Recover the amino acids of this structure.
């Protein structure tokens, strides 16, 4: 009898948008490609009722919070900046509940771009709403023309989880954001910055939850010669697999 190789289920968040006159649930395919390449089964989940978060996390092994529209600034007590994109309140509400439930459930969580910002807000942090006007002199971090290009460096603090995942203290990344983490949420710490000081990485400070957030889009860099972005997905999936295995060992009758 052949034993099927274990492949963890990783839920990834999606957005809702009108395309061709119809409302669609959608997510960029590079995310699902990156999870598949790293050995996981991606499960794209639409915005649901906040009360559904626990039921979902009971059935999946890991969580990927994807990029997308700006988080509504009112969720962190600010008036939206004129440059803010139209908010998606259903998505914001769902994902805040989801990441808080992931913390309670200890579901390993990777958050990219908006996903990192959303997680920061969910734990009480704030965002820089518009880098260009609020942090003049910074790099242009909005490089939609170069999704797959490494346009600035990131310095990762040594001794952090993120540094352990990526190994080099300095790497180069793409940059597709006009907002950034400002004050970190409770339990989170800033672990990486661009050389202009803009936050590019956060993580859960305690060892009891595997949670890493990056401001760049590693899924768009999977095909590049540098190894960091594939390493990030590989090690996320390895952490998900390890966490799922230890959970089944604890399950009665397993
Ligand atoms: Mn950037």
């Amino acid at each position: 009898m052949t034993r099927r190789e274990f492949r963890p289920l990783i839920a990834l968040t999606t957005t809702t948008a009108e395309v061709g006159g119809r409302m669609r649930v959608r997510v960029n395919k590079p995310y699902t490609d990156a999870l598949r390449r790293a050995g996981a089964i991606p499960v794209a989940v639409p915005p649901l009722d906040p009360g559904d978060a626990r039921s979902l996390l009971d059935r999946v092994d890991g969580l990927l919070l994807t990029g997308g529209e700006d988080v509504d600034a009112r969720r962190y007590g600010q008036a939206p900046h004129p440059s803010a994109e139209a908010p998606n309140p259903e998505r914001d509400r769902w994902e805040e509940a989801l990441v808080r439930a992931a913390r309670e459930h200890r579901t390993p969580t990777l958050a990219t771009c908006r996903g990192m910002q959303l997680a920061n807000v969910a734990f009480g942090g704030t965002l820089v709403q518009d880098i260009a006007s609020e942090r003049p002199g910074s790099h242009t971090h909005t490089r939609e023309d170069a999704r797959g290009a490494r346009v600035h460096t990131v310095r990762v603090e040594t001794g952090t989880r993120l540094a352990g995942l990526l190994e080099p203290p300095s790497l180069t990344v793409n940059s597709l954001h006009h907002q950034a983490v400002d004050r970190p949420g409770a339990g989170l710490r800033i672990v990486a910055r661009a050389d202009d000081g803009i936050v590019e990485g956060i993580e859960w400070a305690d060892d009891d939850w595997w949670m890493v957030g990056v401001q760049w889009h590693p899924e768009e860099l999977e095909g590049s010669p540098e190894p960091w972005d594939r390493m990030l997905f590989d090690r996320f999936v390895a952490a998900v697999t390890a966490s799922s295995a230890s959970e089944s060992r604890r399950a009665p009758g397993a």
